[in-house]
């Protein structure tokens, strides 16, 4: 037990440090390539910070614990939409680009609806997984196309999407920026794995089910990269990367993680309830609704999201001990 607690502490420390390095590197790369922060957040940062979910879900499905695999994705997305965005908005109100409200958030919402629909019959078949993965390819194509469009715009449009950080351009080389990203991702993934190992062992010692472990301990553990990266980005005023990271991670988790995992190993679900799937959809609906208010998520809206997550977590804990 003591060793597992040490794992948890070391894992958290690695994740927080790695998130700082990843954010610095991603912002520097985005500035040098004149790519909007939202695109970097939706692709490089989101996919990188979602790797723990991918690894854990794939291994869980292959080991015969599909409830933990899907529970990890559902729990991570609820954690992302409610607590991560909530905490980030409490740190600093988050500015949302109109294109994000009109395209990226609806895409993440559609993904949530699709996963909920596919889970109704209690299984994720290869056909279901194939459709999810196909939609992921469409999402990536749309995102990369928007990046090309952004690069073709005039310099004034590009500067509006990026903060003025000319000082960073003079200090951080391309090689160093890439090194920051790789080092940050390594610490995020390694730290998350250490955390999940320790936390899962502690949870199992108390006889908690695979579904609940996936929805809580594993989901929060594998979402530590998103929490750390988004909080650090928000603190540094990079709201484009912050919200892009959350949305990109949610889409990646559902379409790529469940898609690839289901293609490799079709999953039969038992412990994922309608309450969990409802929270998945409601969390994205709330995020979309709050984004419409002056294209900004205010501190009070962040507080609402955080409180709702606390209520849901309390429900899961009561279900576990009940």
Number of helices: 14
Structural class: mainly alpha
Outline: globular
| Element order: H for helix, E for strand | HHHHEHEHHHHHHHEHEH
Report the major sheet: 2 strands, antiparallel
The proportion of strand residues reads under 5%
- The neighbouring-strand order within the major sheet is 1-4
Unreliable residue stretches: 154-170
How much is the radius of gyration in Å? 19 Å
Q: Measure the end-to-end span.
A: 23 Å
Name the helicity range: over 70%
What is the typical, i.e. mean, pLDDT? 81
Total beta strands: 4
Descriptive key words:
4 strands, single chain, mainly alpha, two-stranded antiparallel ribbon, globular, 84% helix, 322 residues
Question: Summarize this, please?
Answer:
This protein is mainly alpha-helical. It has helices at 2-33, 37-49, 51-62, 66-91, 98-119, 126-152, 155-161, 166-171, 174-205, 210-222, 224-235, 239-264, 274-291, 299-321, and strands spanning 94-95, 123-124, 267-268, 296-297. Strands 1-4 form a two-stranded antiparallel ribbon. A two-stranded antiparallel sheet has the order 2-3.
């Amino acid at each position: 037990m003591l060793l597992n607690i040490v794992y948890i502490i070391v894992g958290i420390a690695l994740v927080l440090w790695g998130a700082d390095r990843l954010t610095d590197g991603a912002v520097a790369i985005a500035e040098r390539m004149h790519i909007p922060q939202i695109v970097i957040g939706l692709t490089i940062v989101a996919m990188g910070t979602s790797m723990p979910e991918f690894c854990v879900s794939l291994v869980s499905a292959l080991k015969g614990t599909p409830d933990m695999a899907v529970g990890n994705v559902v729990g991570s997305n609820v954690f992302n939409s409610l607590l991560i965005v909530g905490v980030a908005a409490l740190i600093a109100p988050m500015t949302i680009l109109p294109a994000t409200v009109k395209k990226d958030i609806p895409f993440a919402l559609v993904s949530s609806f699709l996963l909920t629909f596919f889970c109704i019959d209690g299984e994720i078949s290869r056909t279901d997984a194939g459709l999810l993965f196909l939609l992921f390819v469409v999402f990536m194509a749309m995102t990369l196309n928007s990046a090309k469009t952004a690069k073709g715009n005039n310099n004034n449009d590009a500067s509006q999407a990026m903060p003025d950080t000319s000082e960073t351009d003079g200090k951080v080389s391309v090689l160093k920026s890439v090194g920051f990203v790789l080092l940050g991702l390594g610490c995020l993934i390694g730290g998350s794995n250490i955390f999940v190992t320790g936390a899962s062992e502690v949870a199992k010692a108390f006889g908690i089910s695979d579904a609940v472990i996936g929805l809580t301990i594993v989901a929060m553990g594998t979402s530590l990269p998103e929490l750390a990266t988004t909080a650090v980005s928000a603190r540094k005023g990079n709201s484009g990367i912050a919200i892009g990271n959350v949305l990109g991670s949610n889409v990646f988790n559902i379409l790529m993680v469940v898609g690839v995992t289901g293609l490799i190993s079709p999953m039969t679900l038992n412990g994922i309830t309608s309450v969990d799937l409802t929270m998945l959809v409601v969390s994205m609906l709330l995020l979309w609704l709050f984004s419409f208010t002056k294209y900004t998520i205010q501190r009070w809206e962040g507080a609402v999201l955080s409180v709702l997550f606390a209520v849901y977590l309390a429900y899961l804990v009561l279900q576990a001990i009940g």
